[in-house]
Structure formats: structure tokens, C-alpha cells
Amino acid sequence: MKKQKKFILISMLALFLSASQISMAAELDKNMQTLAKNMSILKSSSDKTSLLNALAMMDKAVDDSMEVLPWNIDSDDKVAVKNYKNDLKKLKDEINVAKEKIESGNIESLRDSLEKMNNIKLDSHRKFR
Predict the structure, then answer these.
(1) In this structure, are residues 98 and 59 in contact, taking their beta carbons and an 8 Å threshold?
(2) CB 13 within 8 Å of CB 64
(3) Burial (CB count within 10 angstroms: exposed 0-12, middle 13-18, buried 19+), residue 40
């Protein structure tokens, strides 16, 4: 009887942990989709308000992503966690640079920031996918 209870408890714990992993992966995927969608807006729009809104959404998605690790990074792997968060910080810094460019009316130079953001994304995907 005790073995059955232990088995049931362990099974329930395993189920709970796998469900929470799926939930975190879904959240991270949602954040990445938000980034991609708003990068498209940055590429296609020249409206200052739209551009600033897109950057605000991207900034929030980066902040939310800081709280979630990709499935293939173990939270005990301090180096991988640090690298992941550093890449997100680079992206956040470039979002802030783009925001400054737009606020100063220098929308034409936004292409440089878009290229840097895309390079950060590509490098990070190579590392963490």
C-alpha cells in the first residue's frame, strides 16, 4: 500500500513538473512571436507612434523572457543561463537605441538597429535552440 502511494505521488509530481515545463515553453514561444511580429512592424512602418508601440511590446517580451529559460538550458548551468540573459540584455539595449532614434526623429537610421536585433536573434537561436 505504501509503495502504491509513493508511486502515485511521484507520478503526480512528474506530471505537474512536465505540465509546468510545457507552460513555460509556451510562454517563451509567445514572447518570441511577439518579438517577430513587432520586428515586422519596425521594418514596414514609418509612423512614429506605431514604431514606439512595437518597441514597447518588444521590450515587454524581452523582460518576460528574462524570467523563463528555454527548455534546453538547465537552471543549474550558470554559464548557459548567464549567456542567455546577456543575449536578452543585448536585445533590450538595441531596442532602447532604436527607441532613442525614433524619438529624436531619426527613423531612417532604424535599419541599423533592425539589423543588429536580427543578428542578436540569429546568434541566440544558434546557441539556445
Answers:
(1) no
(2) no
(3) exposed
